[in-house]
Amino acid sequence: MNRTFYVSTPIYYVNDVPHIGHAYTTLAADVLARYKRLKGFDVFFLTGSDEHGQKVEKAALASGETPLELADRVVKRFQALWEKLDISYSDFIRTTQERHKEGVSHIFSQILEKGDIFLGEYEDWYCTPCETFWTETQLIDNKCPDCNRPVEKLKEESYFFRMSKYQEQLLAHIEANPDFIQPKSKRNEIISFIKEGLRDLSVSRTSFNWGIPVPGNERHVIYVWFDALTNYITALGYPDEQGNFGTYWPVDVHLIGKDILRFHSVYWPTFLMAAGLPLPKKVFAHGWWTVEGQKMSKSLQNVVEPNSLVDRYGVDAIRYFLLREVPFGLDGDFSHSALVHRINSDLANDLGNLLNRSTAMIVKYFDGVLPTPGPLQEIDLAFRAKAETMVAQVDGHLEDLAFSKALQSIWEVISAGNKYIDETAPWTLAKDPALQERLATVMYCLAEVQRLVYFLLTPFMARTARKALCYLGWEGEPDEAGLVWGKLAAGTKIAKAEPLFPRIEEKDA
Ligand code: MSP
Q: Which of 69, 108, 285, 402 places its Cα 20 to 30 Å from the Cα of 448?
């Protein structure tokens, strides 16, 4: 059986430059994609850019470009960052591509023909200078919440999607599929929101032009969220059932931030229901990063720019930090001191030292040739069992998208490794020729446990893992068959490892 796995990130707006918030979702998706590939899945990993809508139109106007010129320029920054962060996406969709526009027109027409999209009138409070409609509840002191100027009641012709019709069906789906929306706290919020009653949704605009025209009525452009959400299927070649759409849909998990959960767990599923398509298997909303305790914002000039972080600390340190520091699903804080602390203590000390000490001893005591182990004693068996438990735990945690817990499980074994060296005291064994076999066993266990550690670290830190596996004499790509004890052959050539992560002086942080 060919097992498939499809994971997506949100498509990013091109009116902003990439920051750690964007990098976070993409990194998480990358780790999942890499882990599933390691496990033998046929993986489709999608990311891309959201290029239509009024915000992009306005940003382009401000920078003296056409919206497409702006998009072409900014999308390169995203793509360059993904390359720098070792993001292994399968496809990058831009909503200005023909394949996307055709798919969006198709699904819109289908729902229109079915009668679940209809032409109506939209009546709300309009702020003329901002060209924006506001609902009554959004107004502040009956004025525009953006510019504080007076608003007027205006009517605009609009297409509406009959979202109300799907309320009960959506609730039933959420009830029947407890894992559909995660984490649980967020699922409850969505359930309450739906129970308050779903209103029909305006899915077209006439107040600006930068978008996909409504089929048959070019005065309207399709609402940017209807356009954007559909990327998850247009990238697969929808409506063509052959090829990727037939192979990968429904998606295994949409990874998103908590601010866009409603779009993904209410709007998107009801659009799909109306189009008669299967729903995503899971929508997972992660938390938000603050920076040194403050909300990240352009005006506070505290936006953390991932490029410079990577230049300063290296890609794997950043990948590790973002996924280790905060449990996925909760909000977290980014601080330089926390980052430096993690690099020094987890990476340079615990991880790096273990590899360093072990490979140095194999070189010193066995000329760099991995010896054949003798019978495993209790302490060795316990160490081996810990490594085997780690393999199972990491699998379970990644199934739950608990990246931080997966890394914790790996680090428990790393700490156990450092303790194992202290307890077996190889330098004492080395003094007595009669204990040569015992020394060989200890060396073998150290190398083999670390081979498993680096197999599991591959999805998180591919470069570091490759380097470490190279010191350990492992030449192939890590795969599922290798996730068991005893694959590292005696006789393998081991080299003394250079430090994987240099320590960072706090003052240099
Ligand atoms: N274009 C829409 C998504 C359409 S998906 C069909 C969009 N784009 S965005 O560029 O504004 O945001 C993309 C993602 O970045 C969201 O998942 C959002 O949660 C995430 N983040 C933006 N700032 C963030 C933090 N400060 N912290 C964590 N993630 C954050 O929304």
A: 402
Residue 152: phi, psi to the nearest 5? -130, 155
pLDDT digits (tens, 9 = 90+) for 78-87: 999 999 999 9
Please tell us whether the domain made up of 336-508 is placed in CATH 1.10.730.10. yes
Q: Please tell me the distance between residue 389's alpha carbon and the centre of ligand 1 in angstroms.
A: 35
Q: Which residues of the chain, if any, have pLDDT below 50?
A: none
Q: Mapping DSSP to helix (H, G, I), strand (E, B) and coil, where does residue 12 land?
A: strand
Query: Residue 382's pLDDT is what?
Result: 98
Task: Using the mean position of ligand 1's atoms as its centre, give its distance from the Cα of residue 13 in Å.
Answer: 8
| Residue type (1 letter), 452 | L
Measuring CA to CA, which residue among 176, 136, 110, 464 is closest to residue 321? 464
What local confidence, expressed as pLDDT, does residue 444 receive? 98
Between CA 143 and CA 140 the distance in angstroms is: 5
Cβ(315)–Cβ(463) under 8 Å? yes
CB 210 within 8 A of CB 53: yes
Whose structure tokens read 């505290």?
302
Q: How far apart are CA 226 and CA 108, in angstroms?
A: 9
Q: How far is the CA of 296 from the centre of ligand 1 (A)?
A: 12
**pLDDT (tens digit per residue) in 341-373:** 999 999 999 999 999 999 999 999 999 999 999
Mean pLDDT rounded to a whole number for the chain: 95
Q: How much is the pTM?
A: 0.95
Q: CA 506 to CA 155: how far, in whole Å?
A: 59
| pLDDT for res 147 | 87
Tokens of 216: 């048959």
Q: How far apart are CA 312 and CA 307, in angstroms?
A: 9
pLDDT of residue 146: 83
Looking at ligand 1, which atom is closest to the CA of residue 232? 6
Q: Which of 8, 13, 22 to mutate to test the pocket of ligand 1 (most atoms within 8 A of CB)?
A: 22
Start-to-end Cα distance in the chain? 49
Our CA dihedral for 242, 276, 105, 207, rounded to 10 degrees, sits at: -150
Which candidate, 264, 289, 245, places its Cα nearest to that of 28?
289
| Amino acid of residue 21 | G
pLDDT for the residue numbered 508 = 59
Helices and strands in the chain, H and E counts: 20, 16
Which DSSP category does 56 fall into? H
Q: What percent of the chain has pLDDT over 90?
A: 89
Question: In whole angstroms, how far apart are CA 505 and each of 344, 349, 427, 497, 498?
Answer: 9, 13, 31, 22, 19
What pLDDT does residue 298 have? 77
Half-sphere exposure of 251 (CA within 13 A, CB side): 31
Most distant CA pair in the chain, distance: 93
CB of 2 closer than 8 Å to CB of 44: no
